[in-house]
Design goal:
The chain has 13 helices and 9 strands. The protein is an alpha/beta fold and 335 residues long. Strand 3, helix 3 and strand 4 form a beta-alpha-beta unit. It is globular.
Amino acid sequence: MKLSVLDQSPMKSGVSPDECIRETLDLAKSCEAYGYHRYWLSEHHNSEALAGSAPEVLMAAIAATTSRIRLGSAGIMLPHYSAFKVAEQFRVLEAIAPGRIDLGVGRAPGADGRTALALNPNASHAADAFPAQVRDLQAWTSGAELPLDHPFRTLRAEPRGPFAPQMWILGSSNYGAQLAAWFGLPYCFAYFFSDGEGAAEALEIYRTQFRPSAVLDKPHCGIVVWAFAADTQAEADYWFRSRALIQTIRPRGRFLALPTPEEAETVELTEIEKERMEGIKARAFVGTGQETANRLRALCAELKADELVITTGVTNHEVRRNSFKLLAEAFGLGA
């Protein structure tokens, strides 16, 4: 099973957003050295919690300082953009890092409605065109033919070359699973969005409805899981306080920068929120490297996932780096 990384460039208390981006660049080099297969970057806009607003730019920067690890978007929120322009961007990335580029796309806005409107004045209708955008994007990135009656059939996304980005459909609902199955593309479920709610159903829909394509002859699915490892369970629990609090107060309607573990302890919670936090802690993939890896393996076996993508965030960069190192060792990536 392939093990990969999703880095959302999480914002942290006491750290400027631009520094969070530089930490992403630094972590990518470490994860390549640890043996991870892919390094994916997310797209969020006008966020107080996540600094990564332009995954294609980060991919180019990381490509310049790595040589083996695959680089990808998880994902490009396609309804914000012209499919042709996205195709050109990823053809350029493919020229920079031949054979190493993943193009993960999603339909969700990755932003509030007002921000989505700022990105695309036609945002209210753009999501309806998502399947057609996926078709066009797949054709333009791979050099395949568009339908005869397509108004832009003769356009070519440059620079062309011997490799094409590997397209993925990303999602957290049955819609994305059905679309990936229809186009015969790899599918990745955002397990960490809702602690896995709906994951089993979506992945089963994907597998049963999958249609073989020119790029994939059988279903290939992954899951993105929030996981954290430390040298001891006590240390892991300490750093997890920040994530546990953010997840607990999410229903309040705000997505905030990660507080330090000490700051997280000072936040007053309602009785309902205290119960919610205990549930979050009980379900979390948090512990020593081997213990966390064992639980992740069991989850992948249960869901029949072909790939596992790990995302994590704590307020100390070196601690986060060590988590990825411990998990890589527990999964035997060095071997």
